[in-house]
Design brief:
Blueprint (H helix, E strand, L loop, with lengths): L1 H16 L17 E8 L10 E6 L2 E7 L5 E6 L1 E10 L5 E12 L4 E5 L3
C-alpha cells in the first residue's frame, strides 16, 4: 500500500511540474514604447549664408537652439505626429528665415529632421 501511494504521489508531482498543462503561466510581454527621440539639426551650409543657429519649436514649445553643422537639439516626445517650426536671425537681429509649420512623424525608432537653408 505504501509503495502504491509513493508511486502515485511521484507520478502526480512529475505531472504537476512538467509545465505541459494548460495552467502554465504565459511568457511575460514587453509593453510597446510610447516615447522616442525627436532630433532637429541645422545644415552646415547655413553658416555660409550668415545663419549660424535657429530657435526650434516642437508643438509650440521651445525645444532649443540648433547650431549650423552640429548634432542639433533633441527631445523625448510621444510617438506620433508633432508640429515643428523654427526661426533664424542674422547677427543684427533681422529675421533671416522661418521653417514650418511642418508635421513630423515620430516612430518608435525616433525621428531626425534637418532644417535646410534657402
Amino acid at each position: 500500500m505504501r509503495l502504491t501511494t509513493l508511486l502515485l504521489g511521484s507520478a502526480f508531482l512529475a505531472t504537476a511540474c512538467s509545465g505541459n498543462g494548460s495552467s502554465s503561466p504565459a511568457a511575460p510581454t514587453t509593453p510597446a514604447p510610447t516615447t522616442a527621440t525627436l532630433s532637429v539639426k541645422l545644415e552646415a551650409i547655413c553658416r555660409a549664408r550668415s545663419i549660424s543657429s535657429a530657435d526650434v519649436y516642437v508643438d509650440s514649445n521651445w525645444l532649443g537652439v540648433a547650431s549650423a553643422g552640429d548634432s542639433g537639439v533633441s527631445e523625448v516626445v510621444y510617438i506620433g505626429n508633432h508640429n515643428l517650426t523654427a526661426e533664424a536671425y542674422f547677427a543684427n537681429g533681422v529675421l533671416a528665415t522661418k521653417w514650418g509649420p511642418t508635421t513630423v512623424a515620430v516612430s518608435a525608432g525616433g525621428a531626425t529632421e534637418t532644417l535646410r537653408c534657402p
